[in-house]
Design brief:
Phosphorylase Kinase, domain 1
């Protein structure tokens, strides 16, 4: 203790002196944090740089025995204002500037980042500024930060924009994937570090021109892997050619055997299907037919229906049993031997979807169990026939009600609001609560079915995609979906994520409220589609004028306004501005919730395309990325 006291007294006499105790014959000395040596700080002897060292006297010299911190990136403000450190076993301790910033001093080339960074473009101090998210960050020093515990990220963003001194904002707490609270920095950002693992997102304020430039740069990086993937695909075509010829030969052989089968099903036209007749059709797999296959993966406990069962249930696909037709193919009402009613989806040969979409739907829906998702009972595979057997929804699809003047009267506002909440909870399960994250990619009113009690159930997972781990965004060359419901980034760039489904949900909410189709409504005089028209009325405080006249009667006007406001937030042109489904459910269900103001919808894809599924290309591969916004 006497040694340490001597050291402190020596340091107090000369603030700029780096003191080392040299009291012999003592064995070791603790070197306390020394004070900053620059002249500007000489007048503040209490400021320390935070380095603790221990020296040992041996062989006539002082030897550094121990020091802290051991990680160079843990040194306080190592990279200066608006700079951050990235250190792990695969990287040298380098300083980097935040996006939109550049090094203040040429010393950066000598790995001295203590001078920090400066902006490339000055802020305008207004709503023309923007924000850019930086992922996996240890947040800056919060000594002078302001915390708003009850504020949402959307409100936090608006508050930061309104304050010319605001430099960045972030969530105060992230628990269970849900952001809560808000932290705002109105001073220079210091002591940041980026980690390879998931930490927090920091939203830094930049000039809008810098935000636009960063968006262009990110889009370019997403496309680079495409070139590599295309080259690999071309080289693989030659390897697959031989396998394709073999498969084709086997297919022709099976067809030849089928033509010589002893019996065929009764009927005529395209609906005639060959099968081996059974006295008592049941639900058991037809193990005696070598052409039969399993429904999907081995771990899926899903029955394989015999073809004879399907034919008997649908009266050989009689015209009067047909319920409708979608992108997958026709749908028939079937009645099993025990009286249970089912819906049978038969893959059409003319469908833009195929065997891969069939397998995809089986694999996805069999794993999903939720009150607001349609239940898959089994499937049928026979030669080139593919069929899915679902629970029967007695009230058909949502679009048959809201777009029909007569049936629309059966759906009052309270029931429509329950349907909106049900769809939101179903999407929340797909995005955040199921075993795997599911992106539906074709959310629309015709893919929402209604049971006896008008409970909505999301259906048609043929083009859905599973995301694993922390993956939240993917890029595809094959854009499949329905115009009007597709988010701008998916329709134009092939980028899809959970935010794509949220955009489609916002469109559906506006359709449920108004009873108008997104592709059928267009105001010639105002040059507005349904989204733009809804935003105009909301801005003028006339949201309730959007209500479908077919409903009649009284309604909760506050609920209507809340639904329209949430829908407009969901159809924001920027994916990062759209709320997560967990926030959507809370905003819809919370009567006293404070909602952020939506932005004006910024994209109109035109008004001359048919409201049908489509494909822009014939081949597909997908490049996956992590979310950047």
């Amino acid at each position: 203790m006497e040694r340490r006291g001597a050291h402190r007294r020596a340091g107090a006499q000369d603030p700029g002196l780096h003191v080392r105790a040299r009291v012999q014959p003592q064995r070791d000395v603790l070197h306390l944090p020394h004070q900053l040596p620059d002249a500007a700080d000489a007048a503040r002897p209490g400021r320390l740089e935070g380095l603790l060292q221990r020296y040992v006297w041996a062989d006539g010299a002082w030897n550094n025995f121990w020091y802290h911190p051991t990680d160079p990136c843990d040194s306080y403000a190592r990279c200066g204002p608006f700079g951050f450190a990235y250190c792990d076993t695969a990287h040298s301790p380098e300083c980097s500037c935040l996006p939109g910033f550049q090094p203040r001093s040429p010393k950066w080339s000598f790995r001295d980042g203590s001078g920090g960074c400066v902006r490339k473009t000055k802020l305008s101090c207004g709503h023309s500024d923007g924000f850019w998210p930086v992922n996996n960050m240890k947040l800056p020093v919060a000594t002078n930060a302001t915390v708003h515990a009850e504020m949402s990220l959307g409100e936090c963003r608006q508050l930061c924009l309104a304050n010319c001194s605001c430099r960045a904002y972030s969530a105060a707490n992230i628990s269970g994937g849900v952001s809560r609270g808000c932290v705002i920095w109105a001073t220079d950002l210091l002591n940041m570090r980026q980690y390879p693992a998931v930490m927090q997102d920091l939203y830094i304020r930049l000039a809008q021109s810098d935000v636009d430039a960063l968006n262009v740069s990110v889009a370019g990086k997403r496309r680079r892997p495409m070139v590599i993937a295309v080259a690999a695909t071309i080289s693989g075509v030659f390897l697959l050619a031989a396998a394709g010829c073999l498969c084709f030969w086997r297919y022709k052989a099976r067809r030849k055997r089928r033509r010589h089968a002893p019996e065929t099903a009764p009927g005529s036209g395209d609906n005639v299907l060959p099968f081996r007749a059974r006295k008592h059709p049941d639900l058991s797999p037809a193990r005696d037919d070598e052409n039969k296959m399993s429904c999907g993966e081995d771990d899926l406990d899903l029955p394989l229906f015999d073809l004879a069962v399907i034919l008997a249930a649908t009266d050989n696909f009689a015209a009067e049993s047909k319920l409708g037709e979608g992108g997958f193919g026709p749908v028939y009402l079937g009645r099993l031997e025990d009286g249970q009613e089912v819906a049978v989806k038969r893959l059409s040969k003319k469908s833009s979807q195929g065997v891969e979409e069939f397998k995809n739907e089986v694999r996805l829906v069999a794993k999903l169990q939720h009150r607001n998702l349609v239940r898959l009972l089994g499937c049928c595979i026979d030669d080139d026939e593919r069929m899915l057997v679902y629970e029967f929804m007695h009230n058909n699809s949502l679009d048959t009600f809201i777009f029909d003047e007569a049936k629309g009267k059966l759906l009052g506002w309270s029931k429509r609001f329950e349907i909106i909440l049900g769809i939101a909870r179903g999407l929340l399960y797909l995005h955040e609560d199921s075993r795997v994250r599911i992106i539906h990619r074709d959310m629309k009113a015709s893919n929402v079915l209604l049971d006896r009690n008008m409970i909505p159930k999301i259906s048609d997972f043929g083009i859905a995609r599973m995301f694993g781990g922390n993956q939240t965004t993917a890029y595809t060359l094959k854009v499949i979906g329905t115009y009007g419901y597709m988010s701008p980034e998916y329709a134009m760039d092939g980028v899809f994520s959970i935010k794509s489904d949220i955009y489609s949900f916002g469109v559906m909410v506006l359709e449920i409220v108004t009873g108008k189709k997104i592709r059928g409504f267009y105001d010639e005089e105002l040059d507005l589609n349904l989204c733009g028209y809804a935003w105009m009325l909301w801005k003028e405080g006339r949201s309730t004028e959007l209500l479908d006249n077919a409903m009649g009667g009284s309604c909760d006007h506050s609920q209507v306004r809340r639904c329209v406001q949430v829908a407009l937030m969901c159809v924001d042109v920027q994916p990062r501005n759209r709320p997560m489904m967990s926030s959507v459910v809370m905003m819809l269900a919370g009567e006293n919730a404070t909602l952020p103001e939506p932005n004006e919808p910024g994209v109109n894809l035109g008004r001359n395309r048919a409201d049908t599924g489509f494909s822009l290309t014939q081949s597909e591969f997908t490049v996956t990325t992590t979310d950047t916004g």
